[in-house]
């Protein structure tokens, strides 16, 4: 729905928040110009992984080879 609204409004840019994960998130249908990971913590370990490494790996799934990541 949000993507449709952005297209109808002829938006040049949009900020899209990823859900709990990253690699398997529904927002992966877009090609970002930049990705920002704000925090990596143990707040969803039962869903995306029991370790910090698992969580970081899942969240890093939003990073594409063509974007700038922060």
UniProtKB/TrEMBL annotation:
Locate the transmembrane regions by residue number: none
Signal peptide positions are none
- Family per UniProt? Belongs to the folylpolyglutamate synthase family.
Name of the featured protein: Uncharacterized protein
The cross-references to InterPro entries, in alphabetical order and at most eight, read:
Folylpolyglutamate_synth, Folylpolyglutamate_synth_CS, Mur-like_cat_sf
Keywords for this protein: ATP-binding, Ligase, Nucleotide-binding
The family database entries (SUPFAM superfamilies) matched by this protein are listed as:
MurD-like peptide ligases, catalytic domain
A GO MF term: dihydrofolate synthase activity
Annotated GO CC locations: cytoplasm
């Amino acid at each position: 729905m949000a993507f449709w609204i952005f297209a109808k409004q002829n938006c040049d840019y949009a900020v899209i928040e990823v859900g709990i994960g990253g690699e398997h998130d529904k927002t992966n249908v877009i090609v970002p110009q930049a990705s920002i990971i704000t925090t990596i913590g143990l707040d969803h370990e039962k869903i995306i992984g029991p370790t910090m490494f698992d969580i970081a790996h899942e969240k890093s799934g939003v990073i594409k080879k063509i974007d700038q990541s922060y």
